[in-house]
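To whoever is on call:

I kicked off a structure prediction for a single chain this morning and the downstream step that reads the tokens threw a length-mismatch warning. I double-checked the sequence; it's 241 residues and nothing unusual in it as far as I can see. Pasting both halves so you can look.
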Amino acid sequence: MAWELFLYNENVFDRLILLIIEGRDWVSLIPAEQLKQIFSVEAKFYHAELVNEKILMRREARIARNSSYATRADAVIVMINPSNCAQAGETAKSPWEAEWISTQPNPTQYQLMNLMERQGWNLVTLINLSDICEGNMGNFKIIENKFNGAGVPHSIFQEENAREREALLDSADHLIFAWGSTNVAKRLAIEFGLFQKGRPEESYSHAKALVAAENGFPRHPKPATVADRVIWLDKMAVLLN
């Protein structure tokens, strides 16, 4: 199916979203305390060993509805790199040895819980362009260079992890790109053959993304304001349905 069906074009659909919003009462976000009663978050942490250094990593996280025993994910959502890494504790030596541990949700995960409630979803898997647990992009690039220099993969999207990646992506009904507008994310998405020039590459033509008209990036799920977060949810609902 053509990629245009899976991308939200803001210039075309903004009026549709405004009509939807004008035609109903304003829908606010579900409070975090309420969401914590409905969903739980788990993650798999590990560490990579470079020369005289251990680097904290996270291969995946998942948000699950507490009342569900779903094994197939409703969606895999791809963002730039992991958060909530301070909760890792003891870590395995590889992603294949890592075990699921319970973690406290962060604001982005609460936003995704809102999406799950709207869609009636039970299970979402979160992966990243890189497993490296480092939120500062300057520090991230320094660590990334160490991996590249040592020839050690740091991403599920690198060819060394192709079999695991394919199995994970095949385990979900939807694939959503949502890594935001950093130059690091843009570079990694091109390098790994996922997305460039405002559209998914052919291998990922089934992926869905809310593409920002001003820069051609897949929008991050959690914009700065509450109003924009609600609009993100509205737009994603149109894209998914």
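Update from on-call: the warning came from a stale cache, not from the record. Cleared it. Sanity check on the structure: Residues 1-6, 15-26 have pLDDT under 50 and may be disordered.
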